[in-house]
Amino acid sequence: MTAAKPPLIVGIGGTIGGVSSTERALRIAVAAAGEIGFRTRIFGGDALAQLPLYDPRATERTEAERAFVDAVRDASAVVIASPGYHGSISGVVKNALDLLEETARDPRPYLADMPVGLIATAYGWQATGSTIAALRSIVHALRGWPTPFAAAINTQITKFDDEGSASDPAVLAQLRLIGEQVARFAPLAGGLAVPG
Ligand SMILES: Cc1cc2nc3c(=O)[nH]c(=O)nc-3n(C[C@H](O)[C@H](O)[C@H](O)COP(=O)(O)O)c2cc1C
């Protein structure tokens, strides 16, 4: 008899073209769920850049598109991280979320029944709030369950490093809390039984 695979948490987010504080924040949150026992898969800036602009009428999907959609299909929980671009989520992150339209006719469409943790970075406070509000609306539209705490990170103040840490311990704790909250609710979607 083979042991059941641990539940999967999928992280989606980051920016393209270099070091991304958004992706670094995402990795901290997802790692916290990994420490609890979740399998983890992250689609960061590089992976999101491989996704073509979503064409709802395309008859074939690229390998990168299939990998992304299959990972979300397999997931018990998701964390989404976006920079605030002009007061809302970035096109790169939105393009990936648009691709979830491919799951519309699945037994579990979109992000249905899944806890979804949210992170927004911006170079100031105002866009962190509006970006989180936009992410919450999108997750509701995708039938997911945004977890109560979302991390708003002002990258004017908080700096991330190569070692997976951040200059502000409070931000680190907030990001870890997101991973932990998502993990705690994932059992509703068939995940691990996490005490607490
Ligand atoms: C196209 C673009 C639009 C942006 N718009 C805003 C904005 O409206 N408000 C804000 O505070 N920061 C804005 N920023 C700054 C980014 O949100 C901020 O630097 C973010 O932390 C970048 O994340 P990254 O390090 O993952 O690339 C913008 C940056 C870019 C490139």
Structure explained in plain terms:
The protein has 196 residues and is of the alpha/beta class. The chain has a single domain (8-189), classed as Rossmann fold (3-Layer(aba) Sandwich). It is 39% helix and 19% strand. The chain contains six helices and seven strands, in the order βαβααββαβαββα. Strands 1, 2, 3, 4, 5, 6 and 7 form a seven-stranded mixed sheet that branches. α5 links the parallel β5 (115-122) and β6. α1 (21-36) crosses α6 (169-185). The model has no long low-confidence stretch (mean pLDDT 94). Bound molecules: flavin mononucleotide (FMN).
- Given the structure, what is the number of helices? 6
- Low-confidence segments, given as residue ranges, are none
CATH fold label: Rossmann fold
Largest sheet: 7 strands, mixed
Shape descriptor: globular
The CATH homologous superfamily corresponds to Flavodoxin domain
Tally the structural domains.
1
CATH class: Alpha Beta
Rg over CA atoms: 16 Å
Helix content: 25-40%
Order of helices and strands: EHEHHEEHEHEEH
